[in-house]
Amino acid sequence: MEHAYVHLLHVLAGHPGCTLAVVFLAAFLEAVAVIGTFIPGSTAMFLAGALVGTGSLNLGWLFACAIAGAVGGDGLSYWLGSRYKATIVQLWPFRTHPQVFDAGQKFFAKHGAKSIVFARFIGPLRAIVPVVVGMLGMSPIRFYSVNVLSALLWAPAHILPGVVFGASVQVAGAVSFRLVVMLMLLAGIVWLTARVVRFALSHAASWARQARLALYSWARRREGVVGRIALRTFNPDRPAIGVIVSASVLVVASAWVFFGVLQDVVSGDPLLRVDASVYHFMQSIRTPWGDIVLSDCATLGSVAALAALAVTAVLWMLWERHWRALGYWLSAIVFSQLLVFAIQFAVHRVPPGSLPSDTYAFPSNHVAAVVIVYGFLVFFVARRVGSLTSLIIATTSAVIVVVVALTGLYFGRFWFSDAIAGAALAAVWVSIVALTVAWQQPTAPASRGFLPATMLAVLCCSVVLQIMGNQPPGGVEDMRRTTLVLGTEAQWTDSLWRGLPCYRSDMDGDRQEPFSIQWSANAATLVSQLRVQGWVEGTDLSAHSLLSLASPHASAMALPVLPRLNNGVPSSLVFVRPGATRDERDVLRFWPSGYVIDDGNHGRTMPLWQGSLVHERLFRASWPINILHTDAEAQADPKGQGRWLAGSGVRVPVTKNCHGIPITLLTSPTE
């Protein structure tokens, strides 16, 4: 996987002209009337910015192409409106969708020339407002002056976040490819969830209207009690009919998903192989830092956070005197959890990982509780705010639910199918509550614009308090802890050294730089003896040192020395010394091996360290990112490393050969 990723970056870096051409076309076509609706120009700008962050593109040329494309696309739309102002409304799709022009005209009437700038950031209006401006006869000089200004604001707003993300990926890749996978996974989940929610909500009204008409037509053909109830339920004149129909459809869809997953789990369907694959993949990308970050993310769905949100919602409904809605929701929480526990004891499916064997995972009660709370809050808050705020709330809640489910998969608390089943079962209850409340209280409550801010403040306070009081998850310490093995120096130089790997391993099965040094010494002795040889301890990661990655004149020695992972464990000691030029340096990293060596002197022992020696060269393919690459062709001489380490009390008992890699065994006296 890592080789494919590196190869992709090399391919993109080797064809910057093609990439910039794609950026120009994306920015151009996104601003063209009709076509722009189907072109993901903003996504293309973000991805292009990420390539700048990885050093594959030049930032200046990217800005130039994006701005030129945006100005040209709006210019073409303006010309179409000016040239065909009398006939363009008769052309498809404007003829069949006159509301598009109505929205553009209302927006221009409200904001005037500023609408060109504002519309640049609003998808549905981006390609329509320039056409409307051309139809209404705005002068070219005035239009292009505002058009260029809008492009100058739009391009950095979409590209710079991508640059930051790409630089983060580049830094993470220099530490461990596991972190790259984790960043990509989180970013992909957030992006995909947001896109799915946005697409679903933007089409929900149309889908609900079509479903309502179909159901109403079906109900009119039915006779008896069922027909009368259905006719009354799906009457187009009934208030809140859209919510009722949407909730009804969601109940059926969620129940279908749950029973489908339940059948697969009970019958041992291939879905179980997907569960195993997801679990093993998550374990393969685990790192101590990932554990800490995702442990903090898990607080969004913790019992404390859910309880804080639930109490706030309860108090609010009590204040509004919505007794029935409160009763339905609390009943859904209680009965859904009881049903989950009943199914768990019936299915008896144990979770992965190291959880107790008497814990059952199908369906996940944790995911179900998160969906019950956040799902109802979306319905509860959305009825009291505008459509745009509702979209933001629904998207944020969906992202939180998915991230919380991801943390459970990452820590092995439940299987993938457990999460799907728990979410589907909870969605059934949320939909039933929404359907019941909308049926009995069809009129939307009074607007409460400050309600989202209140809920957000409660959630943030709960999360901050939990993070401040959190201890690192047990998995972090477990990954760092190794069982120490005692050996003598004779055993070490004779056979013990063979038990240590010859190469650093990041992901399972890969080979990174060789472990060319094994050093038996206390950490303090090792540090002092390397200082004598001209080595200095690497710069710790900090806000100041990370800013040097964007300095146009930084030397290699001024840049932070990033730790690297070996089987998920970061290097404990890092040292650096200058190279032949200011753009080069040697880097020496050490990991604890898990062995201690008896020096034969009154039973005193010294830890055994594994070290890798690499030569790094500064690569400035695209300012503002300084990238240090390991220079395989100019590696520090591993055969001669015993000469520069010998002396000052450092002894080289022997040099071994590990699959063609010279391994220097070093020892230092105890103090």
Please give a structural write-up.
It comes from Caballeronia sordidicola. The chain has 671 residues and is of the alpha+beta class. The chain has 3 domains: 2-175, no CATH class; 240-470; 482-667, no CATH class. 60% of the residues lie in helices and 11% in strands. The strands form 2 sheets. Strands 1, 2, 3, 6, 7, 8, 9, 10 and 11 form a 9-stranded mixed sheet that branches. The chain has a two-stranded antiparallel ribbon with strand order 4-5. The protein is flat, with a radius of gyration of 31 Å. The two termini are 45 Å apart. Residues 472-481 have low confidence and may be disordered.
Helix-and-strand structural type: alpha+beta
Q: How far apart lie the N and C ends?
A: 45 Å
**Radius of gyration using CA atoms only:** 31 Å
Shape: flat
The count of helical stretches stands at 25
Low-confidence regions: 472-481
What is the beta-strand fraction?
5-15%
Q: How many domains make up the 3D coordinates?
A: 3
- Helix % is 55-70%
The biggest sheet amounts to: 9 strands, mixed
Give the strand tally.
Answer: 11
Average per-residue pLDDT, rounded, comes to 76
